[in-house]
Amino acid sequence: MRKEQRELERIAQGQRRASQGLTPDELVSAHSRNFDIRYSKITSVKITRRLFQSQLRFYVSGPSTTEQIIRFNLPKKQIPEARHLLELVLPPKTKVENHS
Description:
Blueprint (H helix, E strand, L loop, with lengths): L1 H18 L4 H6 L12 E8 L4 E8 L5 E8 L4 H11 L4 E5 L2
Parallel strand pairs: 1-4
Antiparallel strand pairs: 1-2, 2-3
């Protein structure tokens, strides 16, 4: 178990070193599952808190009148930090919902 942990940490450090000098656009294109969300395209952001799962949702304007929703699952302990950051960067577009 420890050997596996050390190996994973070694890989992570190598990846950090390799990406350290990259520009944001280079970081996005470095992996096929990366993507960017343009600030100007964000129409709103919502943090939804539920009993078993919380989500961060970005509502992004698309071509013509379409809107795309990009979802990220959040651990409950990260909600206050995410909320704080969103209120700093996107105050008029941020909404928090609590559901039980």
